[in-house]
Amino acid sequence: MGNTTLLVLDIQNAIVDIFDKSITDPYLKRLAAAISAARQENINIIHVVTGFRPYYPECHTLNASFSGIISTGKFQEGSKDVQVHPTVAPLRHEPVIMKRRVSAFMGTELDMILRSSKTDHLVIAGIATSGAILSTIRQAQDLDFKLTVLRDLCLDRDEEVHRVLIDKVFGRKMDVFNADEWIEKISGEKTA
């Protein structure tokens, strides 16, 4: 049996700031609790953020997901936009991977890091359910990872899309837990 890694997707300042604080404050509190529990149980944690080089050489004008970013000047490497939100800041030994596409796997070293740590089970949290979460999960399935999705630690601007993905897509193919259920599960595995 391999290892489990908690994959925290796009919990960076520019993305968290899109949402109202009435949504993000309780969300970040739940996420911080899950990260803390993972650390206590020696579960690997990898943070993934979206960012681009100056002048956006990675953003093709035909890519509807990213072409609009160029005019905003946001999401540039080294800027506050791409820093992991301070509420869930990584520890020094926790990798932070910069992605330049929607999936955390596309064009990054994520798969290599996961294989090097003998990870075979990914636990997924982050923003947005219809973006990074969906794209990363689909690619992880193709790479034969076991998957768990943390329902209340995935967030999307469209609540209905979030619900459909969690309940009707992810829920049929992988484990889906709320954060408190997952924390209880990983804490109980040690004593079971």
TrEMBL record:
Q: Pfam families in the record, alphabetically?
A: Isochorismatase
Question: This chain belongs to which protein, by name?
Answer: Isochorismatase-like domain-containing protein
Which GO MF terms does the UniProt record name?
hydrolase activity
Recorded hits in InterPro entries, A to Z, give: Isochorismatase-like_dom, Isochorismatase-like_hydrls, Isochorismatase-like_sf
| Keyword hit for Cell cycle | no
Keywords of the record, alphabetical order, are: Hydrolase
Isochorismatase-like domain residues are 4-172
Family membership noted in the UniProt record: Belongs to the isochorismatase family.
